[in-house]
Amino acid sequence: MPHTPITLSTTLDNGLKVLIKEVHRAPVASFWIWYRVGGRNEVPGITGISHWTEHMLFKGTPTFKAGEIFRTVNKNGGTLNGFTWIDYTAYFETLPSSQIMLGVEIEADRMQHAVFDPAEVQRERTVIISEREGNENQPAFFLREDVNATAFIAHPYGQGVIGFKSDLREITREDLYTHYQTYYRPNNATVVVTGDVDAEAMLDEIARRFGDIPRGPDIPTVRTVEPEQQGERRVTVSRPAPTRSLLMAYHAPDASNPDAVAMTVLDTVLSGGKSVGMGGGGGMGRSSRLYRSLVATGLASSSGSSFSLTIDPYLFNVSATLIPTTERARVEEVVDNEIRRLREEPVPEDELGRAIKQLRAQFAYANESVSSEGYWLGSLQTVAPERNPDEFIEQLTQVTPDDILQVANTYLMPTNRTVGWLEPTTTAGGAPAGATDIAACRPHFFSDGARFSGATPTVRLELSEHTLDNGLRMLGHFDPTSDAAVVGLRIPAGAIADNGTPGLARFTGQTLSRGTQARSFAELNEELDSLGASISVGATREYVGVTGRSLKEDVRRLIELMAEVILQPAFPEEEVDRVRGQSLTLLRQALNDTRAQADYTLRSTLYPAGHPYHNRVIGTEETLQSISRDDLIAFHQRAYRPDQAIVATAGGLRIDEAQTLIERAFGGWTAQGDVAPIVIPAVGAPAKTLRESVPIPGKTQSDIALGLPALARNDPDYDALRMANLILGRLGLMGRLGATVRDRQGLAYYATSSLEAGLGRGPWVAYAGVNPVNVERAIESILEEIERIRTEPVEDEELADATSYLLGSLPLQLESSDGIAGTALDIAFYNLGLDYVERLPERTNALTKADVRSAAERYILPKHLVIAIAGPDAGE
């Protein structure tokens, strides 16, 4: 399994571990620091203190005042983050490589000099509690919290990360500062640098800035060892939810245990390859055992398993979100049978080969991002410092069927598990993502993107263009250093083409890959997984996107399979019914999701019935029940046309080869009849402020959405309004809205804004999640910030930062093949011009403070907003 080795590994005299990996694909570098402290290091009374301490390190030092870390990194073209998990707390700065020393300076400073101002501690208390309450809005959070607490009767892993609300109300500034002084020491930390750097020069700089920091006392050990479980445990959580969810948790080995390698492969056999680090490719695993037995059969809308690399023995989880009509006993029986097969039957060699190929592909995809590389190296070093990351990857390829039998019989025993069920107390609505892992605070992003000050970076995106005889437009970019290939195809066949049947476009897209005229759904999935490849289909309001990912060695076959999916879908009746059931479950989940409900209420009020932007993309319960196979076939024949389609290739696929492969696969695609024009009626702002409330039972937090129709992507005012939106709700810690609502007032964990300009007048929206008692105060604060940006010139520094965002983020955006393909499709779909990236600096630098204020004044109208609120007592 090819993988670039670590360039340099050493330990400074004060105990600081340093790993540096040179990756010269793009002029980007990522600086990470990992502290071996998380939920594992907490005791009752101070649960959540590691996560809260992480927040406080963004609150200032004598060198960097509160908020300046964000602004400083932003001004130098970077993005930053911090997150906490059960085993670690980590921070990173990803920057243009010429500015990477800023990350060294920031992290060396706040390792020693974080202030923990008492007033900031108090403000952050309500923010942390708001974050907890946001988690509580998801019923699956309570399920996971109770399962973990039941699985661990002694070890602190059972407490999670976010902390209990009673502890969060009582933790003091002294508690936090003591925690910081205890664990934020060089002998408890690892520095990881990946990207376009000189390893020796970087080590010299790290040693100069970190080398004089005192080692500190030995870190307190975690003495508790979880006693062996003596029998199956069960827990039931009763919450308002649309359907049942299952979570089975088996005690599993730690990362240092030799069994961890085989458990990683077993996890892939059971539910498919997972993303590595912060990147990686999704969409794999549809030939996996859980998907075939639960999702493909229509018993569940989603299923999965997870094995995490941890310091102490943790859990192997199996999860499923049931279709509402499915009985829980049936699902539990299916899961038991799949686990029993792993214990009793050797995994066939071809199935094992598919799993290993998926793992190989995931590491290749993640290798394109220096941030993902830093995540992988730092997390493994933190949980298992004796493991060589390159050897671990190689060991995955050596796992045998006997190895999997051995670990399955060691860990996946009924007496070693906790079985948790979420039982709905109501039938209306639902909870999002009941079958996914919820790892509180791992990670959460504060920064929106990258900014650059000083000289504008020179960024080019060299795209070749070719049009087939049938009108299919092709854009290509070749990166000889990439082992991956990405092929994206976009057609204006999203919800705007539903023609009075909401959800038809998405239903068609979701069924597109459920079997072709040449092979069944299962056969297609088996071949894709054997390649470590994926084909994903997604429908937005405006287009259907089909994205294929593979290793470059398999791209020929990937393109052939993509063409088969797009041109020859069979729409099998049984798959149509399964997609229908899964879509209905997702719709019911959305009905009980406060943020989704606030967003839908706002949009359906802004855009009248019949408008392409009025309905949910997923549709309504009535249309989902009524759409037939014939409807899907007719929509596909009408809307999937080569003369309206765009395909983009990126990664290690040569341009000439790409053109040959696309021509061979798609050259015979034909369209019948004339192109139906896309009509998106113009909608103005409401005549006055409208307010709508949606009460949802069982929630702790309210979500607010305030917005109105803005403009289209090709509007001459787009650049200026985007700049205003960046300043208002995006830059740094969520712009002015974040600074006011979250940072200064402590009302919310998030307060931000978005501008969704597309083919038509998409909405501008401000969002916030707050405790119900703070709804009116949050709305008032948002309106004050709207009025300010409309009536007062933005500051020179704000304009410079917003300009820097648009220019400095380009190297990071174009770092991966996924990013390049996505940018190319945007350029073509919105007719921005192939030289869009090259023209961006001149156009952006030309914007003035007057332009920004004028755009805000014309488009963000505080007296003509729709205000939507969803949550407990939302109607009061």
Please explain how this structure is put together.
The protein is an alpha+beta fold. It is built from 31 helices and 22 strands. The strands form four sheets. It has a six-stranded mixed beta sheet, sandwiched between helices. Strand 20 and strand 21 form a beta hairpin. The longest helix has 19 residues. It is globular, with a radius of gyration of 26 Å. About 4% of the residues have low confidence.
- The gross shape turns out to be globular
Distance between the termini: 60 Å
Could you tell me the number of beta strands? 22
Mean pLDDT: 90
Largest sheet: 6 strands, mixed
The percent range for strand residues is: 15-25%
Helix proportion: 40-55%
Structural class: alpha+beta
Low-confidence stretches: 427-457
Please describe the structure with a list of short key phrases separated by commas or semicolons.
alpha+beta, 6-stranded mixed beta sheet, globular, 31 helices, 876 residues, 22 strands
Give the helices and strands, then pairings.
Blueprint: E1 8-11, E2 17-22, E3 28-35, H1 49-56, H2 68-75, E4 79-84, E5 89-96, H3 101-113, H4 118-136, H5 139-151, H6 165-170, H7 173-183, E6 189-195, H8 199-210, E7 233-239, E8 245-251, H9 259-271, H10 289-295, E9 300-307, E10 315-322, H11 328-344, H12 349-366, H13 370-383, H14 389-396, H15 401-411, E11 417-424, E12 464-467, E13 473-476, E14 484-491, H16 504-512, H17 521-531, E15 534-539, E16 544-551, H18 555-567, H19 573-591, H20 594-606, H21 621-626, H22 629-639, E17 646-651, H23 655-666, E18 690-695, E19 702-709, H24 718-729, H25 731-744, E20 748-755, E21 763-770, H26 775-791, H27 796-808, H28 810-813, H29 817-829, H30 836-845, H31 849-859, E22 866-871
Parallel strand pairs: 2-6, 7-11, 13-17, 18-22
Antiparallel strand pairs: 1-2, 3-5, 3-6, 4-5, 8-10, 8-11, 9-10, 12-13, 14-16, 14-17, 15-16, 19-21, 19-22, 20-21
